[in-house]
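Exercise 3.2. Students should predict the tertiary structure of the chain below and write it as structure tokens, then compare their answer with the key that follows.

Predict this chain's 3D structure.
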Amino acid sequence: MPEESSRREEDDELLRKMIELTDDLEKAEGMAHKAADEAVAAASKAVLQANPSLDVNKKKADAKRAVEEEGQEEEEEEEAQGGDEILDEELKTYHEVARAWLRKSIKTVLSNVLTEPKLNLSVQEPFPGTLFKKGLSESDIETRLLKLGVRCRGVAAALDEAVAPEQVPDPLATFFKRLVAPGQRFPEGYFLPGERARLSLPDGSNLTPEDLSDEDAKFLLGQFLYTRVLCQELVLRPWTCSIGPPIPPGKNEQGNLKIMAFLLYRAACAAMAPGGSHEAVEDAAVRAEIGKLPGDEAYLVDHTAQLVPDMRDKLQAVIDRLYAHLVAKRKPKGEGDAAKGGGLQVDTGDGDAGG
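Answer key:
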């Protein structure tokens, strides 16, 4: 029939346009990922040019992997030594590299928060509407909490993809090994009060303990990635990190970002605390930087009692996975030559790793 034939032609045309649009989107996404990879590579190259010694470490690691791929055994293990001071300028450079590395993984989630029309993640006790003010129902609250959970879990899932061994830039991996090495000296003022307390650092000391445990090493790694890079920068102020327009968004969008940064920080602190309690690690200065949340904070905390532990477990697994890739094992002080160099044994391959 003519009408049916015409409808079929319209459907075919619509399908063709959808396929073309999908292809265009895939090409655009591929170009975006390529640009992000090039940005990370450029930042890594800049680090190597500024610090030639790091290129030596990379070449050694590459040579070791080549030998292992040929099936030959090699007993030598390259070690990220503690004791060589991490300079302030060097720390800033690697901070930028880490930010670019994580940004390409979580950019989609944060871009959605910045651009989705009328997205509101603030919650409070439901209340009836009035002539001049729209009410907030239990259904509204449930919807907001659901959207909040999806986005926070999306960030955690993106981080898990980012720490795959092949995704971590070699210079950044080398820096991470130094970051968690026993007896490592940091720039003055680097450590937050909570970090100093956790590591039992004497007043004025910026040197990590020689007997730094695996858990404390993971704590240092998590504090750098989660607190300094993820929560304080990428999530709280994405517009300063090449996510979205380079200008502050509206009050509502900033409020949504604050809520996400707040919950991710609580989850990260719980992931880094021995007993899983965020209060043991949470730093007042970081919490103050996140600022006052829209809605009712106490109500938010109460109604995310399941979300935060869920994210805690995911963030803990991410750090465990990254740390296992960086550090194969530790030897007690006095056992072999490695103990004299700080106690860290680093395996740049993907074999069995302890953490």
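Discussion points: Confidence is low (pLDDT under 50) at residues 71-82, 328-355. DSSP finds twelve helices and two strands in the chain.
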